[in-house]
Amino acid sequence: MTIKDFLIFFRWKNLLMIIIIQYLLKYLLFQKFDLTTSLDTIHFFILVFSTVLIATAGYIINDINDIKADKVNKPDKLFVGKKISINNSYNLYLALNFIGLLLGFYLSYSIEYVSFFTVFIIISLLLYRYAIDLKKRFLIGNLTISFIVFLSILIVGIYDIVPVTNAYNNQTQIQVFLLVFKISCFAFFLTLIREIIKDLEDINGDLKIGAKTLPIKLGQNKTKNILFYFSFIPLIAIIYFAFTIYKTNLLASIYLLIFVVSPLLYFITRVKKSNTKIEYLKLSNLLKIIMLLGIITVLFLG
After folding, report:
1. How far is CA 185 from CA 26, 151, 153, in A?
2. What's the distance, CA 242 to chain centroid?
3. What pLDDT, on a 0 to 100 scale, did the predictor assign at position 1?
4. pLDDT at 161 (0 to 100)
5. From CA 219, how far away is CA 124, in angstroms rounded?
6. DSSP code of 137?
7. Residue ranges of the chain with pLDDT lower than 70?
8. Which CATH entry fits the domain spanning 3-299: 1.10.4100, 1.10.287, 1.20.1050, 1.10.600?
9. pTM to 2 decimals?
10. What's phi and psi for 275, nearest 5 deg?
11. How many alpha carbons fall within 13 Å on the CB side of residue 211?
């Protein structure tokens, strides 16, 4: 495999998004509020690196168990069994997952909150269970991935804010942690919508493996109707947030309305009209961009 093949195999765009979001929170949002944080530059890098390693391992184990579906859904991006053997793929999964968990344990130990290591274990186990069978279950797979994305963002607040929150700084610390929680919820809902869009895109391959996704169980039209109405949840939430910060931060409010609300409205107008694999792919990519643009709002906060 070439370097380009490995980048595609590892889903480098998704990994880069995780890195950007986590660093935005640490070095823009937290610094703007002048928070007391527990992780220095090196330990924060370890947090990001371990998250990325476990996420990469998750993609690999998913590809190992998705060979049959990928032959139909994306034959041009089929790597396992074609460009890299199943055995080597599994060894790579084990190695990356082990190193990621080991770094997560070291990080938890270094901040004297070993119990926080549970977050890494949960993410790792959910990614494995998703690849094995959860992705085939009605809505369970979609909710699982959405929850993992939620945790991958919230983990920054858990490790960097919670350990150093005390009676003297708790007002600001809790305020920012709740903001990180809201950002994580925003990512959760957009990921859930995106995962259902991907089910529409991959319906032929999913039928081959006996999956019981929303489009397979309810049909494409009903699924698109559900997506249409469900998309109003993040839309209304963002509009409400934009107007609640209007008096204190006009720039952030305008940014949200132009770069997050407008694309979401466009998505809503297109979701019922889309029918082809290419159209679903475009909607999926649009949601990924909306998520990043929404989280970039932290640039204007504070």
Report:
1. 18, 10, 9
2. 22
3. 67
4. 96
5. 32
6. S
7. 1, 5, 70, 73, 76-77, 302
8. 1.10.600
9. 0.92
10. -140, -20
11. 29
